[in-house]
Amino acid sequence: MRVAAIAAIAFLPALALAEITISTPSASSYWVQNLSNVISWSYSSGDPNPISIVIVAKNSTTLNGDYSIAEYVEVSEESYTVTNVTLNVGSDYQVEFVNPSNESDVYATSGYFDVKAAGTTPADTSSATASTTASTATATEANTASGSASSSGSSTAASASSTSSKNGGTRITGTAALLSVFAAAVLGTVML
């Protein structure tokens, strides 16, 4: 049993990966052709840096392959403005943050978003960004407040899970939440 616990703890660094979260565009923050449109995100200090930004449309013919937006963007910028969007009108686009040296290495993917015809009133992205930022901050605060490595690991995971509710779903985010779930599993194994 000790061997299993030691082996599990040895994998903690591999599980402590940070997560870039793309806030906009999203289903509620579409883009409009021929206007400036913003990509915004949150990150942690351990996230890959720099990134390349590409647009993909995997489920249709609105885009013929990946569309490169920018390369070697510093994640600390937390936003990038795309000027004069010339994408076709469509509803299955996603933004991907990829490794600049290997585009098949995807770091983050946005939700699906639409591109509307020129002349459409732009989406209000301020509320979508504020909501995502508040959700991320709440999850981080919950993780920090109760994220100690103790036998209360399972309650930490529950706390992080319930406070980071996003778009009607529940999602555990952040390194502390992931480590808490893992610690709870290890402690449960050790106590058996």
TrEMBL record:
<feature type="signal peptide">
    <location>
        <begin position="1"/>
        <end position="18"/>
    </location>
</feature>
<dbReference type="Pfam" id="PF10342">
    <property type="entry name" value="Kre9_KNH"/>
</dbReference>
<dbReference type="InterPro" id="IPR052479">
    <property type="entry name" value="GPI-anchor_Adhesion_Reg"/>
</dbReference>
<keyword id="KW-0732">Signal</keyword>
<feature type="region of interest" description="Disordered">
    <location>
        <begin position="120"/>
        <end position="168"/>
    </location>
</feature>
<feature type="compositionally biased region" description="Low complexity">
    <location>
        <begin position="120"/>
        <end position="165"/>
    </location>
</feature>
<protein>
    <recommendedName>
        <fullName>Yeast cell wall synthesis Kre9/Knh1-like N-terminal domain-containing protein</fullName>
    </recommendedName>
</protein>
<feature type="domain" description="Yeast cell wall synthesis Kre9/Knh1-like N-terminal">
    <location>
        <begin position="24"/>
        <end position="115"/>
    </location>
</feature>
<dbReference type="InterPro" id="IPR018466">
    <property type="entry name" value="Kre9/Knh1-like_N"/>
</dbReference>
